[in-house]
Amino acid sequence: MKMDSVAILNSLNMKLDLDPKNAKILVVGLGYTGISVAYYLQKMGFKFAITDSRDRPPLMDSFMQDMPDTPVFTGGFDEAAFKVCTHLVVSPGVALTEKSIVKAVANGAKVISDIDLFACSVNEPVIAITGSNGKSTVTTMLGEMAVCNGKKIGVGGNLGTPALDLLEQDAELYVLELSSFQLERTSVLNATAATVLNISADHLDRHVDMAEYGRSKKHVFNGNGVMVINADDPVVNAMRETGRATVTFSIKKKTDFYLAYQDSAEYMMHLNQCLMPLSDLPLEGRHNAANALAAMALGTVIGLDEHKMSEALRRFKGLDHRMQRVAEIGGVTWVNDSKATNIGACIAALQGYDRKVILIAGGDAKGADMNELAPIIKEKAKHVVLIGKDAEVIKQSLDKTVPVNNAENMNQVVSICAGIAEVGDCVLLSPACASLDQYKNYQDRGNQFSKAVLDLIK
What we know:
With 458 residues, this protein is α/β, with parallel strands linked by helices. The chain has helices at residues 5-16, 32-43, 60-66, 79-84, 99-106, 114-119, 135-148, 180-183, 210-218, 234-237, 287-301, 306-315, 343-351, 374-380, 391-398, 410-420, 442-454; strands spanning 25-28, 48-51, 72-73, 87-90, 110-112, 126-130, 153-157, 173-177, 193-196, 226-230, 246-249, 257-262, 265-270, 273-277, 324-329, 332-336, 357-362, 381-387, 404-406, 426-429.
């Protein structure tokens, strides 16, 4: 049964010291998350203001039409607004190291997140999914598994619909993808089941180091729910807690969910039971086998039927820009993995191939050490084409061990690759870097790649 407003207010007061009479809330960031927070606070009867460092946030005009009386401060963070607030709801895109935030916290303000507000507002099961790579795929897989099991489900968080907007749906189960930025400011989430899929270098332009990044991810295990652990990742494995219920998955060894050969075919397994042949999974790369096992493990925790989960996996077509096959032209396969915005994602993509590929990489490395990428490129790439801000950084790390070309734009990239590729080759866009140095986002980068590839057919 859904919580009524009285129950939610009691929960907010007890867990976050939030009550409409005394709280002075400042929402930091007028993006999709900030706006979802604003509508939630208005509905619950809280007084609040919003601040954004941008002069004219893209969503501001439509928001002001709906809430014309809301105090909004733009063009920098207003010191006066920070000085009087008791609570800061800081959007994931805003670093907690901002001077105004640090000063407000020193003066007694409490930082909370939209995920905290969400956690105080539901009594249905919540599944929380994070990791450096694969979290959108696993979130979507699990959502489709739940639908196949006849569940009314709300899927969102860092993926698609903001968490607080999911409260408007008639859901009996919530599946949330959560980023490190969301988790580092979340304190009261107690998921029924949670997983950290993997940890690799990412967002080191925002996190001090890998240790801090890992600690942020570990917040997903706050509470007493079931921990779903990737037994192949030593950092994740070290997050296990004594006395907590745990389910494990692996693509390298026998665990609770794993891969094994039966009668010369490789199967996804649960304990000693065959779930489905791995060949039935319609996705490229063995890292997607790990994603499927993780989704199965999470689904089992909440009682989903394994046959129906397998059925959902057989129908799963993957997500755009994630190991997405664009075309096969003249015997050459072109794959768009533009979502690979960090080293770990690129490594996972390359490890999924038994043959050497032509790799397209580069962009904004976000402070990551590209030397960590070099060994797998040397092993798995026959040629590399580099683009973007940190192309030279990657090139230097390869130290002339692999042939390298540089390109200025995606049309040039595809032209170079088409000239190099032979029948049987795979050309893989898996940049290992963010896209904002040249593109609107990773989707724009992937779309431009796909367009340039399809233009080869014309």
